[in-house]
Amino acid sequence: MYQIEHLTKIKASNEKVFEAITTKEGLSAIWTPKLQVKPILGHVNEFDFDEGYITKMKVIALKKSQQVTWQCIASDIEWQNTVVNFDIRDKNNLTEIILTHSNWRGVTDYYRWCNYHWGMFLYRLKNYCEN
């Protein structure tokens, strides 16, 4: 199995970063405005990227201001059964967030494309939280 990993440092509190990746307001500003999300363990978040299907992510771990983990239960075939994890921590007066997208079956062009877009997601997250 393969995984994508990214780290960024944000000049904002852990709480603000956590809120940005768990609420409709935050995720619609940084990922897609077409969504249904709730910060509730077991809830299935839905994201529409205008690709002809809805990406569904089940919340499988949720630790306030520390961790958010989703398991993909419906999406592009390469995303199905993958896991997206956000680890949030304080480090040197900054918030570090480590994004890991694991359980990929192979390194494909779609994997590479998603790797790039996860970097852009974190860039938008940083801008959203700092401004």
TrEMBL record:
Cited InterPro entries: ASHA1/2-like_C
Pfam family, any one: AHSA1
Domain Activator of Hsp90 ATPase homologue 1/2-like C-terminal: from-to ranges: 11-129
Protein known as: SRPBCC domain-containing protein
Organism per entry: Arthrospiribacter ruber
Upper taxonomic lineage: Bacteria, Pseudomonadati, Bacteroidota, Cytophagia, Cytophagales
